[in-house]
Specification:
Blueprint: H1 2-52, H2 58-63, H3 69-93, H4 102-124, H5 128-150, H6 159-179, H7 193-225, H8 228-242, H9 246-260, H10 265-292, H11 295-302, H12 309-335, H13 339-364, H14 366-392, H15 404-417
């Protein structure tokens, strides 16, 4: 397992690095305004993907070993087409993306839906290495295409990013299709496939949708009250800060695998607590590194318009640490069949984002957005911790580091090696 986990971490580090380099190019070529437009385009694609993944996506990982492949792919492909067409109609009515980009957002979302379907099948076939390779190739193609389109002299716009996204998603869809084992027989036949896909998809996507709003609702509020240039500045700061979640998310994957395969509740409890503490320690180290990077470095990297990030990062830090810990509790609830608590926690955070964001952002600008994000993320964590303590009979003291965590961390390492 350690090879798979280290490969997943390496893949996520590479993807994050590629995404940051894309922002570097955009910052220098398009400025803060262009970065803001790109952020809204990406957010629009993600928004369209939520209904597109109701049939497909994560549900496929569960169903691939249990049903014939074409039983899964036919409804997944059909739903991808139908959902993106419906979303295109809605985007023409509700201006959630920059004007003129609605068609591109929906076409790119459709390509990403196909990409997600193929990755879900590949994961269901336990080909994690292939999954990591394709996601890395996608990020690499996006950067290479974007750099090539920016190379000629002359005026550029966010459309260069759109064209680069077409290239990256097309490559990923093709690579995904090639790497599927099309004749892989199911281990067991699953009746009522469509019903199972809907049930699994609605629960997972419901939590994902609320979490997306928890993460990104501030983008629309900032754009509405502070302008697209301010959104571009905030998106860079947010992207840098969220890089602290790479290791916690990878550790969460290990925890999910472990918790799902052991029946000892005390063992589940202890390894979850240790994973949460290790995740927070790693996130603290990452945040401290960002805190000591001089502002001039950020300006050199992302362009002269990107400055003054440290106050925003300082206000975002509590939320970043909260979500680092939340990765452990989220995967614990998933591994023990309690996904509803992830849904409720994300919903609680979204309520805070809406209730406080529309008040703080207009009055405090980007600092208000950062405070809102930290409060929303912390609210989600508080709910998860409260439920975890109640269900596992833990105490607040158990959340503090102690000597036993060293032995548990070693056990976690042994789990990886096994």
């Amino acid at each position: 397992m350690i090879k798979q986990v280290t490969g997943t971490i390496a893949s996520r580090v590479f993807v994050t690095a590629m995404n940051l380099l894309v922002m570097v190019l955009a910052g220098h070529s398009l400025g803060a305004e262009g970065l803001g437009v790109i952020s809204l385009i990406v957010l629009g694609i993600t928004l369209v993907m939520l209904p597109a993944n109701l049939i497909g996506g994560g549900a496929l990982v569960y169903l691939v070993p249990r049903a014939r492949l074409w039983q899964l792919l036919k409804p997944a492909y059909a739903w991808a087409v139908l959902s993106t067409v419906c979303c295109f109609i809605l985007l023409r009515v509700f201006p959630l993306v920059p004007i003129g980009y609605e068609k591109h957002v929906c076409v790119l979302a459709f390509l990403q839906a196909l990409y997600s379907i193929h990755l879900g099948v590949i994961l269901g076939q336990q080909r994690i290495g292939r999954h990591n390779f394709i996601t890395a190739m996608h990020a690499g193609m996006l950067l290479a295409s974007f750099a090539a389109l920016l190379w000629p002299t002359g005026p550029v716009s966010a459309m260069e990013y759109v064209y680069a996204s077409y290239a990256a998603f097309t490559l990923s869809v093709v690579l995904g299709a090639i790497n599927i084992r099309w004749n892989d027989p199911p281990a067991a036949e699953e009746p009522k496939v469509l019903r199972t896909m809907l049930r699994q998809g609605m629960l997972v996507q419901g939590a994902n949708g609320l979490q997306l709003l928890n993460y990104r609702l501030a983008y629309w509020i900032i754009q509405r009250f502070q302008g697209t240039a301010s959104l571009g500045l905030y998106s860079v700061c947010n992207q840098l800060s969220e890089s602290a979640w790479i290791a916690p998310r990878s550790l969460g994957l290990v925890l999910l695998s472990r918790v799902s395969n052991i029946a000892d509740r005390e063992h589940q409890r202890s390894i979850t607590l240790t994973t949460a503490k290790v995740s927070v320690c790693i996130a603290i180290a990452f945040v401290l590194v960002l805190a000591i990077v001089p502002d001039v470095i950020f300006r050199m990297a992302f362009g002269n318009e990107i400055s003054g990030l440290h106050p925003i990062m300082f206000l975002l830090a509590p939320g970043i640490l909260a979500m680092a810990a939340s990765q452990a509790f989220s995967h614990y609830f998933s591994g023990t069949g309690q996904n509803k608590h992830n849904l409720i926690g994300s919903g609680a955070g979204m309520v805070v984002s809406v209730g406080i964001g529309i008040w703080l952002v207009p009055s405090m600008g980007l600092n208000g957005a950062a405070i809102t994000a930290s409060l929303a993320y912390s609210t989600s964590l508080i709910y998860q911790v409260t439920v975890f303590i109640d269900r596992t009979k833990s105490s607040l003291r158990d959340l503090m580091p102690n000597s036993r965590d060293v032995a548990r961390a070693r056990e976690l390492w042994k789990t990886l090696r096994s």
